[in-house]
Amino acid sequence: MSTFATTSPAVWSFGLALVALGGFAVQLALGWRGGARATVLVGAVAASAVWAGLGLAYAGWGGDRLWLGWRVADVVRSAGWSAFLLLLLAIGHSGGASRRLRQHLPVLVGAAILGAIALVWMFPGQPLRATAAADSVRLGYALSLGLAVFGLVCVEQLLRNTPPELRWGVKPLCVGLGGVFAFDLFLYADGVLFGRLDPAVWSAHGAVQACVIPFVAVSTVRNREWTVDIAVTRQVVFHTTALLGSGVYLLGVAAVGYYIRYFGGTWGAAVQVALLFAALLVLGTLVTSGTFRSKLRVFVTKNFFSYRYDYREEWLRFTNLLAAADAQGGIHERAVRALADLVESPGGALWLRRERAFRQVARWNAPEIVEAEPPGGALAAFLARTGWVVDLGEQRRRGPRAVDVEVPRWLEGWSDAWLVVPLVVGEELVGFAVLANPRVAVDLDWEVLDLLKTAGRQAASYLGQIEASAALLESEKFAAFNRMSAFVVHDLKNLVAQLSLLLKNAERHSDNPEFQRDMLATVRHVVERMNGLLLQLRLGTDPVENAGPVDVAAVVRRVGQAKAAARAGLSVEAASPVFGLGHEDRLEHVVGHLVQNAIDATRAEGRVAVRVADDGRHAVVEVEDDGEGMTREFVQTRLFRPFQTTKREGMGIGTYESYQYVTALGGTIGVDSAPGRGTTVRLLLPRAGLGPRAANDLREVA
Predict the structure, then answer these.
(1) Residues 6+ apart with CB under 8 A from 392
(2) pLDDT attached to residue 435
């Protein structure tokens, strides 16, 4: 028959204790790295977890055997915590556990445990009511009472004998275990007095033990020499502390509200509702307050962790904020925010080198400052020489951390300015950030200063890459414009050559009507080409219209007619229409350039032949000459690159432009050449697929 109902407080109390103690025991066991203190600590927590499990079993099912098991576990639990305190005392006095203590402590603890088991076995007793064997029960409770008193003595001795500078590490442990032993003292003193345990007090025993776990965990984290690693993230501790504080706050409000409702008469209910609303409003304000969250974060960091920052989390957040392309503000503003968030600062500004001075390029919750800091100024020179973080507050107060640097006047006008963080790449100062006063007081120790300097270097490298990329993009734009200018100059040179030849012949043939017609046609062609050049300058290097079917044979015949006057031995084989994809004027320019190169490379009596063919997939144009030829190395590595030429007065643009255009259409240009044997250039254009009617229409137009 069960002693307690399954819904009783004892079930929930010992159930909570089992979860808390069991989880803590597993955490300690996973972080155990050897050593006497770690071993005894893990053993004491494990014994407490077993004690909680037996208490839960007895609360749910009852029975003398479960009660006996719980009593044994209770004695072992108390003895285990006492042994841990004794071990800390011995190590604290000698700097290491004495040999005698190491030898006799297990024997003493084992003897106490065996004696307690025998005593409990002989006098099992009943926890909730006095029995005929009340004196025997009192004797068993007296043993637990003695262990509680002994534990309190150990707590007092440990706290008293620990040096003041080291009490920070053991104070949470002493507070927690002192509370447990004090509760045991009250529980078993009442049991000795009345011959039974108070059911209500006993039911709370498990919850009391569970409340001690955070205190023991804090001391374990603060004392790494206990050789137990506890991996609890700062986010978990922060949110747990906030949740615990909110719970305590709401419990206090509930207690006050109950008191008002009970004693407030007719006004009680209304005042209670108003109080609850106001309390929730205050709680919501605190939870959403950046200042309150900053204070809570600083409190958790100072009291629960040996290092101020979780560097993994801070670095991931810092890097993600710098690289967040979709975040509000530009990269410069994000850099300021990333630095400010490290020290709970609500604002700041960034200065980078611009026009031979450091100028403000971004600000976040900070005033606009138009004054510039020269590279040779006092502040910039100091930052470049030392790379230190300057505390402007200390500079104004001339405190102990003040440095020998003159603060510029433009910075003195910003009363909220707090820190100046240098941005250094290698040994060069590329800028600096000024951060505003933090939401909560931050102690600028070595850890904060080192983190700011390292983060400043990281931000400087990232900003330097951004600046270099922007400069490279601007350089590429200028390079593209220069290439376009070179193409335009090349085309203008050809047009000027045509006009020069026209003027030269005009002196002799100006009265010839046929020459006049040719002259008008040439001038019209030059005007069209120049208008096309102007259009290309406005729209870029890509053709204005999409590529379409072009009769390549007709284009070659026109080029042959135009070049015939300059080369008597020029032969053209382009009788049958051959259609390829392209732009008629651009193809005429490409073919004309290839033919002109062949003419320039041959002697006056040399041979230049142009042939057009259709190989089924391409429109093929071959330009063959018996001129000087080119080396294989020049053809493979230099021919199709800009500004590479074998001509004395050439620019090396035409071949490159032709190659770029033909390859953009999906065609190729092949060259077979050797010094003294001439050159054959084979131009392959994608073949245009036309129906018979469309082909006839194009022939008529051609």
Answers:
(1) 407, 411, 417, 418, 419, 420, 434
(2) 92
Q: Give residue for tokens 């008629």.
A: 584
pLDDT of residue 422: 92
Mean pLDDT, rounded, for 162-169: 76
CATH number of this structure's domain 546-701: 3.30.565.10
């090349």: which residue's tokens? 490
Identity of residue 543: P
**Residue 676 C-alpha from the chain's centroid:** 63
Q: Locate the domains of the chain by residue range.
A: 9-230, 244-304, 311-472, 546-701
Contact 439, 474 (CB under 8 A): no
d(CA 556, CA 573) in angstroms, rounded, equals: 9
Amino acid occupying residue 100: R
- Beta-bridge partner residues of 348: 364, 435
Asked if 567 and 603 count as a contact pair (C-beta separation under 8 A), the reply is: no
**Homologous superfamily of 9-230:** Rhodopsin 7-helix transmembrane proteins (1.20.1070.10)
348 phi, psi to nearest 5 deg: 175, 180
Segment 390-401 mean pLDDT: 76
What is the rounded CA–CA span in Å between residue 289 and residue 690?
A: 74
Take residue 193 and report the two structure tokens written for it.
């007095």
List Cβ<8 Å contacts ≥24 apart for 140-143. Answer: 140/71, 141/188, 141/191, 141/192, 141/197, 142/188, 142/192, 143/75, 143/115, 143/116, 143/119
Beta carbons within 10 angstroms of residue 327's beta carbon: 14
Strand partners, 328: none
- What is the residue type of 8? S
Spatial separation of the C-alpha atoms in residues 582 and 155, rounded to whole Å? 95
Alpha helices in 510-620 (DSSP H): 513-539, 552-563, 584-601
DSSP-derived secondary structure for 341-365: HHTT-S-EEEEEEETTEEEEEEEES
Rounded to 5°, the CA angle 311-316-317 comes to: 100
Write down the pTM of the prediction: 0.41
The arithmetic mean of pLDDT across residues 236-249, rounded, is 59
Tens digit of each residue's pLDDT (9 = 90 or more) over 107-118:
555 555 555 555
pLDDT value for 313: 74
Task: Report how far Cα 271 is from the mean position of its chain's Cα atoms.
Answer: 50
CATH code that applies to domain 311-472 = 3.30.450.40
d(CA 257, CA 265): 13
User: Do residues 432 and 421 touch, judged by C-beta distance below 8 A?
Assistant: yes
Is the Cβ–Cβ distance between 459 and 449 less than 8 Å?
A: no
Of the candidates 577, 663, 683, the residue with the CA atom closest to the CA atom of residue 620 = 683
Name the nearest CA neighbour of 591 among 617, 568, 619, 633: 619
Which tens digits make up the pLDDT trace of 465-481? 877 777 777 677 666 66
